Amino acid sequence: MARTVTSTSQSRRTALVDSAIRTFARTGYLGTPTTALAQDAGISPAYVFKLFPNKTALFVAALDRCFDLVEAALEEGASASASVEPADVLEAMGGAYARLIADRDLLLLQVHALSASDVPEIHASMTRGVARITSFAQSRSRGSDAQVQRFVAVGQLCHLLTMLGIPDLDQSWARALSRGIRHPSPAAPLTREEVEDDGPP
Fold first, then answer.
1. Is residue 54 part of a domain?
2. Beta carbons of 69 and 62 less than 8 angstroms apart
3. CA separation (Å) from 169 to 72, 128, 161, 165?
4. Looking at residue 183, what is its pLDDT?
């Protein structure tokens, strides 16, 4: 009986975290009341607090889950790489990441986490996530520090381009900033071959 209760509690906790990613992505950490999190998950506010001690803990769990998904996508990309050369592995990882952030909830959650990084727990979680992904890219690709730095930097530029829709602007500055960087839209993800060669689009 105890095992069944634990299993049910864990499944509800997982469902709440997945729901929280969507909810926090829409309105951010500061703008999301616990009642909204409960409503989206289809549970009572009291049950939210039964699963997590406070809103900050739930946001951190959602952010940790986001980085779980990022790492899984990078592994999927690396496993599909055409060769074991660092540049090829990073290129394949970049393509997988591009497809992942076609889900704008994951992208928006990271943006909101940065805006709330003055909250110590969120700062620690975001730093932990960046460290985790950077270390994974280093070990999985066996790339140089410069290659991995560019991989991460281009990924952050992709966040900016995607959030502002810059690639859709027919202006010289937008073309310059978007040069060589392609990424999917939620409606039509790019194929692996369409993703820019050197890093996350």
1. no
2. no
3. 32, 35, 10, 7
4. 60
* Residue 178 maps to a domain: yes
Determine, yes or no, domain membership for 20: no
**Full domain range(s) for residue 131:** 59-190
184-193 confidence digits (pLDDT tens): 554 333 333 3
In contact, 100 and 75? CB cutoff 8 Å: no
Per-residue pLDDT, 184: 55
Calpha distance 192→198 (Å, rounded): 12
pTM: 0.84
Q: In this structure, is residue 30 part of a structural domain?
A: no
Q: What is the per-residue pLDDT for 3?
A: 54
Instruction: Count up the domains in the chain and report the number.
Output: 1
Tell me which residues of the chain have a pLDDT lower than 70.
1-7, 182-201
Show the 3-state SS of the chain.
CHHHHHHHHHHHHHHHHHHHHHHHHHHCCCCCCHHHHHHHHCCCHHHHHHHCCCHHHHHHHHHHHHHHHHHHHHHHHHHCCCCCCHHHHHHHHHHHHHHHCCCHHHHHHHHHHHHCCCCHHHHHHHHHHHHHHHHHHHHHHCCCHHHHHHHHHHHHHHHHHHHHCHHHCCCHHHHHHHCCCCCCECCECCCHHHCCCCCCC
**CA-based diameter of the chain, in Å?**
65
